[in-house]
Amino acid sequence: MTRWEQFFQEDERALSVPPSYSVRNAVGVFSKRNKHNILDLGCGLGRDYFYLAENGFFVIGVDLAESGLMIAKQIGKSKGIATILVKSDAKSLPFPDKSFEGVYCFGLLHEFTGETKDNDIRKVMSEIYRILKFSGVLVLAVLSGEPVEGLPDVYLFTEQMFDNYTRSFQLVDKRQFNDIGCTGKKDYRVWYGIFTKQ
After folding, report:
1. Are 99 and 34 within 8 A, CB to CB?
2. How many angstroms separate the CA atoms of 73 and 44, rounded?
3. Which residues on neighbouring strands pair with residue 63, listed in sequence order?
4. What Cα–Cα distance (Å) separates residue 99 from each residue in 26, 129, 132, 159, 187?
5. DSSP strand pairing (100-106 vs 132-143)
6. DSSP sequence for 28-58
7. pLDDT of 6
8. How far apart are CA 168 and CA 101, in angstroms?
9. 49: buried, middle or exposed (CB in 10 Å: 19+, 13-18, 0-12)?
10. Per-residue pLDDT tens for 121-172?
11. What is the average per-residue pLDDT within 87-102?
């Protein structure tokens, strides 16, 4: 069992955490650019997934933790929202090329901490590029900091790392701010970027 499978099953804090600031910004970004078909990559319990759905987007959520997806389906039923949730490894997504107008990804990339982390992150970014339509929009947020300070649980990103992993995309905007983590902590320092596929 992964730490996220366990977290979703055992930690009740995750059920009461409000949508992130990143997704609130993303709603404006996608709306302004007329992007309606969105992939929430690393959707977990769906806190940001449902915020996107409730704001009129057609959203497909992907996560590898089945326990999170099961809870998200139950939340969807209680909200009266039809959910499309897919269990998949982000390094090998089950979607055709150019399937989505937008990709929203909050807090996934810093989860790769093993010896293959650099290659794993590059595979995820390559998959995002592949499934995003031309002129599509990526909204990406990762934990900010010095990499070794977060290990073994998370791989913190410096600005240079954030830039390097996203260089195949066209940068629209990049910021650093405190967000709300999955446990409700509000000092979740992130790099937040808006990118387009050209």
Report:
1. no
2. 11
3. 87
4. 19, 10, 6, 29, 34
5. parallel
6. HHHHHTT--EEEEET-TTSHHHHHHHHTT-E
7. 67
8. 17
9. buried
10. 999 999 999 999 999 999 999 999 999 898 888 999 999 999 999 999 999 9
11. 98
